[in-house]
Automatic annotation (TrEMBL):
NCBIfam families: PRK09357.1-1 (NF006836), pyrC_multi (TIGR00857). Belongs to the metallo-dependent hydrolases superfamily. DHOase family. Class I DHOase subfamily. Its EC number is 3.5.2.3. This is Dihydroorotase. Pathway: Pyrimidine metabolism; UMP biosynthesis via de novo pathway; (S)-dihydroorotate from bicarbonate: step 3/3. The gene is pyrC. One of its GO terms (molecular function) is dihydroorotase activity. Residues 50-237 form the Dihydroorotase catalytic domain.
Length: 448
């Protein structure tokens, strides 16, 4: 018999406190029945003051394996994901080799299954080698054991409108979705940061908002024309929010994501020339941050996705122009959403469950994740302490890379436990390959 957990006095979605029993991989009982049915062997978890959420689902994670195991592996990245409260991640396709065949996506899916920290759903590339020329084997990836439903050339934009049209048409056949990294390449050649007052003052080449907005506008019209669904990656500007709002008002089947860093940070961070703040799309202005927060609160933006983009030191500890784009995010996402949206009164915990679990699961067609907190449902769960405060120390995180933009910042909230089909992957805030914290204290041994 598998381990049973009795979660005492937890608050589902921040509501009234109840007991919840996890047994045989499912939520076995809620309320008075839970303690009655628990039996003597159940492990009790004191949940007073804790919020119970469905396990978080990330639609946009870079796990880097195969090819850049110096930055992250499926094992280290999925362990980081569990520590961040996730029970499923979508592994982006910009690996080496590219995830553009059934063979490579199955390899990543298998690595995820064997690691056992979260469910890994590989994203398939739209074009062969992300080169934007020839459509990849979308159908073969969809029909593989990895059951790919999300397709993206992320890191690059599918800028050829004919290729984008074909991808949108083709993915309809297997209920897939194209997830577009919206960046007009000619308008962003050489770009280093957001084009605006700060870029002009500090002398870095700018990436104008219109380079994102022009592609989103084109793509929603293409999606309408062919009757396909479209997902917009890491939307970052006020204008992009306006376009999505307009597209939804016309009934276009589009969804959009915002990252935690675009909900919190602005281009002012670039003034110190610290490449930890170099990211694609770039950090924008305070007005853009306000617009994406408002768009997330009113449902125009559907989800938060981390765009966890680990990079090794040598790709970040260099001058700004030479550094790689990207920041880690799996282990701070929930805290940033709490600070930006919950603690500001703009969203409830039920909204958090929607934007970080049920809707990303629905977009990715992940059937057994993001489910309601009800008896009989799979026990994919996250237990959060909203009253906790912690200072971000990247070297103490599960991810193998240290490029967190929140280094040294105090953030609210902490993941106390994560359950994957009733099995604790994290308990008392510790990964369950390291229950007493000794491996973590000794360095990175736990991840290799
Ligand atoms: N976000 C980033 O700045 N970088 C991502 C690629 C991407 O998401 O576009 C990466 O793979 O490093
Ligand atoms: Zn991208
Ligand atoms: Zn990305």
């Amino acid at each position: 018999m598998s381990t049973r957990y009795l979660l005492r006095a937890v608050a589902p979605l921040g509501g009234d406190a109840v007991d919840v029993l996890l047994a045989d991989g499912v939520i076995a009982a809620i309320g008075a029945d839970a303690s009655a049915e628990a039996g003597p062997d159940a492990i009790e978890v004191d949940g007073a003051g804790l919020v119970l959420l469905p396990g978080l689902v990330d639609l946009h994670t870079h796990l880097r394996e195969p090819g850049r195991e110096d930055a992250e592996t499926v094992l280290s990245g999925t362990r980081a994901a569990a520590l961040g409260g996730f029970t499923a991640v979508h592994a982006m396709a910009n690996t080496t080799p590219t995830q553009d065949t059934a063979g490579v996506v199955e390899q990543v899916w298998r690595l995820g299954r064997d690691a056992g920290w979260v469910d890994v759903r590989p994203v398939g590339a739209v074009s062969v080698g992300l080169e934007g020329e020839q459509l990849a084997e979308l159908g073969a990836m969809a029909g593989s054991a990895a059951r790919v439903r999300v397709f993206s050339d992320d890191g690059k934009c599918v800028h050829d409108p004919v290729l984008m049209r074909r991808a949108l048409e083709y993915t309809k056949a297997f209920d897939g979705v194209v997830s577009q990294h919206s960046q007009e390449p000619r308008l962003t050649a050489g770009a280093q940061m957001h084009e605006g007052v700060v870029s002009a003052e500090i002398g870095l080449a700018g990436w104008p908002a219109v380079a994102e907005e022009a592609i989103i506008a084109r793509d929603v019209l293409l999606a309408e024309h062919v009757g396909a669904r479209l997902h917009v990656c890491h939307l970052s500007t006020a204008g992009s929010v306006e376009i999505i709002r307009w597209a939804k008002s016309r009934g276009i089947d589009v969804t959009a994501e915002v990252t935690p860093h675009h909900l919190m940070l602005t281009d002012e961070e670039a003034r110190g020339y610290d490449p930890v703040f170099k990211v694609n799309p770039p950090l924008r202005t305070a007005a853009d941050v306000e617009a994406v927060r408002a768009g997330l609160a009113d449902g125009t933006i559907d989800i938060v996705a981390t765009d966890h983009a680990p990079h090794p030191r040598e790709d970040k500890d260099c001058e700004w122009a030479a550094a790689a784009f990207g920041m880690t995010g799996l282990e701070t996402a929930l805290s940033v959403v709490q600070e930006a949206m919950v603690d500001t009164g703009r969203m409830t915990w039920a909204d958090v469950a929607r934007v970080l679990s049920s809707t990303p699961a629905a977009i990715g067609r992940v059937e057994d994740q993001g489910r309601p907190l009800a008896v009989g449902e799979p026990a994919n769960l996250t237990l959060v302490d909203p009253a906790a405060r912690r200072t971000v120390v990247p070297e103490e995180q599960g991810t193998a890379s240290a490029n967190s933009p929140f280094r040294g910042r105090q953030l609210p909230g902490a993941v106390v436990a994560t359950f994957l089909r009733g099995r604790a992957t994290v308990l008392d805030g510790r990964p369950q390959d390291d229950p007493d914290g000794s491996l973590r204290a000794a360095g990175r041994e736990a991840t290799v």
